[in-house]
Amino acid sequence: MTVQPRPADGYAGDLTPTEAWELLSQDPDAVLVDVRTDAEWRYVGVPDLRTVGRQAALVEWVSYPSGRPNPRFLDQLAATGVTPGDGRPVVFLCRSGQRSIGAAQAATAAGYGPAYNVLEGFEGATGPDGHRGHEGWRAAGLPWVQP
Predict the structure, then answer these.
(1) Closest CA relative to residue 115, chosen from 124, 123, 105, 129
(2) Which end of the chain has fewer CB atoms at under 10 Å, N or C?
(3) Over the stretch 55-75, which tens digit does the pLDDT of each residue have?
(4) What is the DSSP string of 23-74?
């Protein structure tokens, strides 16, 4: 991997959206796991990895609308085909890069990874205008689709 993740506590590190795309493009074993909610996937969009021959795995970290942690997160992560100890890079993405930290930490503790967090997430933090979308995966011009 030519990208150098930023150091992090409890997981392999943080990547910018562009670095995450570079890793996913270069390493056919790397997996992108979008940990946002079903509502976010449906109404905001999802990363489109078809040009690198795969698709993002969709596994909620918290459930909508309750906001409660998904008790089946690790089981659902395993159902994506990633297994603990297999050494496959797992890149976690959420809306702004916060929930995905918890997912990366939990995956690392369970033996998955190296696990990475995508800084800024899919649409970034709220900007000065009160809206998201000024940073993150979409703002970086990376491929995405509206399901």
Answers:
(1) 105
(2) C
(3) 999 999 999 889 899 999 999
(4) HHHH-TT-EEEE-S-HHHHHHH-EE--GGGT---EE--SB-TTT--B-TTHH
Superfamily of domain 33-81+103-125: Rhodanese-like domain (3.40.250.10)
- Which residue type does 11 have? Y
Question: What's the length of the chain?
Answer: 147
Is the pLDDT reported for residue 142 higher than 80? yes
CA atoms lying within 13 Å on the CB side of residue 134: 8
Does residue 1 surpass a pLDDT of 60? Answer: no
Distance CA 17, CA 116 (A): 11
Give the residue-averaged pLDDT of 126-135.
88
The residue extents of the domains of the chain are 33-81+103-125
pTM value > 0.85: yes
Q: Tell how strand 31-34 and strand 46-47 pair up.
A: unpaired
